[in-house]
């Protein structure tokens, strides 16, 4: 199964002339099996409607739908899981709310956060940020390939690297030991999300 992980961005999709459901369907058609709905400015109503639409699409392709931050939205549409960052609801409380059957992802930005996550009931780690990115403003320090390698060495959890990953560096990310790679702009900002996802999938499995 492809471990290419798409994180959505409505504004970026708009600039490329595409809606999020279109991007997600094209990416799923190209083999993406992890989709995270990440909405920072949408109203709750718009968020939950979009989540419902993505649930239908991802289900059709056998892909997992993960909701960023919003446990309530994830539960409302029966998504496959929730992804939280360090400033969001603590992961043990998220687990309490979503139960044991759903997937829980946690972002870690450095080795200290990795240590704090040891023994936690989480299913995968988002490892950020690897390379410079214009997509997220508050990426404090960059891990680079060395930092990613060290984090992957120190955990048994699946690791999805994120931040500045594109067709030019995705092979290096996989060689550093990541289970998979998560991207926003490389798919959402591409004129053809299908072609972009296909190329990334092929490169990462080389
Ligand atoms: N978390 C850490 S970096 C990032 C997120 C959501 C943005 C990654 O975006 P891109 O466009 O793939 O660099
Ligand atoms: Mg968050």
Describe this structure as you would to a colleague:
It is an enzyme of class 2 (transferase). Pfam families: TMP-TENI (PF02581). GO terms for molecular function: magnesium ion binding; thiamine-phosphate diphosphorylase activity. The protein is α/β, with parallel strands linked by helices and 206 residues long. The chain has a single domain, classed as TIM Barrel (Alpha-Beta Barrel). The protein contains 10 helices and 8 strands. The chain has helices at 10-15, 20-29, 44-61, 71-76, 91-98, 111-117, 144-153, 170-175, 185-188, 193-204, and strands spanning 4-7, 34-37, 64-68, 81-84, 103-108, 124-127, 159-162, 180-183. An 8-stranded parallel barrel has the order 1-2-3-4-5-6-7-8, surrounded by 5 helices. β6 (124-127), α7 and β7 form a beta-alpha-beta unit. The radius of gyration is 16 Å and the shape is globular. The protein starts with a strand and ends with a helix. The mean pLDDT is 96. Bound molecules: 4-methyl-5-hydroxyethylthiazole phosphate and magnesium ion (MG). Residues 7, 128-129, 133, 135-136, 139, 162-165, 183-186 line the site of 4-methyl-5-hydroxyethylthiazole phosphate.
């Amino acid at each position: 199964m492809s471990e290419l992980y798409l994180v959505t961005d409505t504004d970026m999709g708009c600039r490329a002339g595409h809606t999020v459901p279109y991007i997600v369907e094209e990416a799923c058609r190209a083999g993406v099996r992890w989709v995270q709905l990440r909405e920072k400015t949408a109203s709750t109503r718009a968020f939950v409607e979009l989540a419902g639409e993505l649930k239908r699409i991802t289900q059709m392709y056998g892909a997992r739908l993960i909701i960023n931050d919003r446990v309530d939205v994830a539960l409302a549409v029966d998504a496959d899981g929730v992804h939280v960052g360090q400033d969001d609801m603590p992961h043990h409380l998220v687990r309490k709310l979503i139960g044991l059957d759903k997937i829980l992802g946690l972002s870690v930005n450095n080795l200290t956060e990795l240590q704090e996550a040891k023994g936690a009931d989480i299913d995968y780690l988002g490892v950020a940020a690897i390379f410079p990115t214009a997509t997220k403003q508050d990426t404090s320090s960059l891990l680079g390939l060395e930092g990613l390698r060290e984090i992957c060495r120190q955990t048994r959890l699946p690791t999805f690297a994120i931040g500045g990953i594109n067709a030019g560096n995705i092979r290096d990310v996989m060689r550093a030991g990541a289970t998979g790679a998560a991207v926003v702009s490389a798919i959402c900002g591409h004129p053809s999300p299908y072609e972009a996802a296909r190329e990334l999938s092929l490169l990462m499995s080389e």
